[in-house]
Write a structure and sequence with these properties.
Strand content: 15-25%
Keywords: Signal
Distance between the termini: 66 Å
Protein name: BMP family ABC transporter substrate-binding protein
Structural class: alpha/beta
Number of strands: 7
CATH class: Alpha Beta
CATH architecture: 3-Layer(aba) Sandwich
Strand order of the largest sheet: 1-7-6-5-4-2-3
CATH topology: Rossmann fold
Length: 206
């Protein structure tokens, strides 16, 4: 009887540990499958976007496409200007709402390439960048690391490779509204999750 009780207790403890386990990113695993799907108007199914294409998804066509819980994201950021801070806040709010596992790397203006490398060394599912000063460092590093997906918010990089997706619009200081920045992270991750990568999502209509 006592032995049976011990087995039951051990089993219950193991179940509890599995349910409450914290993902410390120490183990590799396949990228989890996304939830939902892209809606009508995100892309034209009869004419898939070509590399470096600029596409204009219909507002809200990304709303049903979400990452799986625990999706690993590194926020790579630099700059204290209002547009960058608004984008950064949008990423953090999105991560909380979608139960995304988020880590942040803040780039030193004196060594931005080191920050890009540090973000990659964390081996996330996706690196999201905010801050226009990261454009040149990303252009230098990303072509040599095609197995790492990047999402650039609020700007673009020249000649992006297939692992770099951007969300941009006609940028003015007052165009970085809270609603547009929230749409940018959601639309951008929806594209990456569904392999619409290496393109620019243009959100001028939002």
């Amino acid at each position: 009887m006592h032995r049976l009780l011990l087995v039951v207790l051990m089993s219950a403890c193991a179940t509890l540990a599995a349910c409450s386990g914290h993902d410390d990113w120490s183990r590799s695993r396949p990228v989890p499958a996304p939830a939902g799907a892209l809606g009508l108007g995100f892309t034209d199914p009869s004419a898939p976007p070509t590399p470096e294409a600029v596409i204009t998804p219909s507002p809200g066509s990304w709303s049903s496409a979400r990452p799986a819980a625990g999706y690993r994201v590194v926020l790579l950021t630099t700059g204290t200007d209002t547009p960058t801070q608004t984008l950064t806040r949008a990423v953090r709010e999105w991560a909380v709402m979608e139960d995304v596992s988020l880590k942040t790397v803040t780039a030193d203006p004196a060594g931005p390439v080191d920050a890009v490398v540090a973000a990659m060394e964390l081996r996330p599912d996706l690196i999201v960048t905010t801050g226009a000063e990261l454009t040149e460092p990303l252009a230098l590093v990303t072509p040599s690391h095609l197995d790492q997906q990047f999402l650039v918010l609020g700007t673009t990089i020249p000649e992006p490779t297939a692992n770099v997706t951007a969300v941009a619009w006609t940028a003015t200081p007052d165009s970085f509204t809270r609603s547009r920045c929230a749409a940018a992270i959601r639309a951008g991750t929806a594209a990456v999750l569904h392999d619409v990568t290496g393109v620019v999502l243009w959100l001028d209509r939002y």
